[in-house]
Amino acid sequence: MPKSHSSKRAGKNDRKPSISALVRDIKKQLLSDLQSDPPISTAQLKTKYLGKQGMVTRAMKEIGAVAPEKRSEAGKELNTLKLWAEGQMSRVSETEKMRLDSGIASDDGFDVTAPFPPNTTGSERPGLEPKVGTLHPLTTVGEKAIRIFESMGFHLVEARRLDDDYNSFEALNIPKGHPARDLWDTFWTEDRLIPIPHTSAMQNRILSSVKPPIREIIVGKCFRNEATDASHEHTFYQLEGVYVDKNVTLTDLIGTLSHFMNAFYGRDIKYKIQPSYFPFVEPGLEFLIECLVCGQRGCPFCHYSKWVEVIPCGPIHPNVLRESGLNPDEYSGFAWGLGFDRLVILRNQISDIRLLHSGDLKFLEQFR
Ligand SMILES: [Zn+2]
To answer: How far is the CA of 343 from the centre of ligand 1 (A)?
Structure first.
């Protein structure tokens, strides 16, 4: 600790310095101590300045030697000095507390104002380890699904995030005023683009630009005008498949999807097909699998039906083929739209699909 020259000046045989000079000296000394490297602890500073023999305490005692007419002024100066010194001590003590709260024992170069613990790597510096994130389950599941379809000969295409009326509806046999548009009608931009309601918005481009045989999968984030519940969400990821060749039958569609399901879950998955309606396929079908959340005992996710609709699908409507320049008498094909979100739910027995887009870290940390 640096030696105090002011305490020497205050020695009984020395000529007394003025209170103002004493105050200046003490301030200068304290400011220099506050910047000392390594830092001086609060306890040491308190002893040196505010303790019984501390510099401030001893300066206060000098008041008796001051001429009576100057005593009031000197008293004010000393009190101001004491308050200032106490303020500096409490600031230093706050900083020490923050260091302790951060779990850092060493004072050496630690930046307590950093928004993350940058100085804590290495075993010699115990402290907070930075949190390492992980891929979202939608990403891992999506990638797995893509790999399976690629192994079956499909080629991957990415959907647009916004698309126009023609590709989203008209080219898919959904003319203006068609009631099916209600579910898909969300927000239009000023230049008449819509967040894609389905990855089928890429179908016309693919059918009109790729020469058959066509084996494409399309992945994209889709948006619906949907009343949400445990198994429905307004935003979801879709993996669409488009297959066109000569003599393609419904059996090819069912075989492709059941093979995918078995490969995805690693065992034979029970499935069934039921009729449905989608304007761009004819007939419209639903590919359902056993509810893996409840093991077919019945639960809110499957609406107690024990089955879950996972893939709307069907043979491509002749109007859609014709619109793309393909002759429906020569070519036939099938298409499907698979929601990733449901695959994640079913694989992990999650009871509410809305958790996937919630951004809830407690939920996501389960997938480390
Ligand atoms: Zn269920």
So the answer is: 13
User: Do residues 335 and 200 share a domain?
Assistant: yes
CATH of the domain at 162: 3.30.930.10
Active-site residue flag, 184: yes
Selecting among 59, 201, 335, 344, the annotated active-site residue is 335
The band of 104, judged by pLDDT with boundaries at 50, 70 and 90, is low
Please, which residues have CB within 8 angstroms of residue 81's CB and are 6 or more apart in sequence?
23, 26, 27, 56, 59
Give the Å distance between the CA of 312 and the centre of ligand 1. 19
Predicted TM-score (pTM) of this structure: 0.64
Q: Please say if 238 is a catalytic residue.
A: yes
How far, in Å, is the centroid of ligand 1 from the Cα of 353?
Answer: 13
Range of the domain at 86: 5-101
Residue 335: active-site member: yes
Q: Which of 215, 224, 317, 342 is catalytic?
A: 224
Q: How many angstroms from the chain centroid is the CA of residue 349?
A: 22
Helices H, strands E: what count in the chain?
A: 13, 9
Would you state the pLDDT for residue 329? 96
Q: Is-catalytic flag, 198?
A: yes
Say if residue 27 is in the same domain as residue 156: no
- Highest mean pLDDT: which range of 32-41, 49-58, 148-157: 148-157
- Note whether 88 and 141 are same-domain residues: no
Ligand 1 center–CA 219 separation, angstroms? 27
CA dist., res. 25 & res. 21, Å (int) = 6
Question: What SS3 state is found at 63?
Answer: helix
pLDDT per position as a tens digit, 13-36: 445 668 888 999 999 999 888 888
Q: Which of the following is catalytic: 56, 92, 184, 201?
A: 184
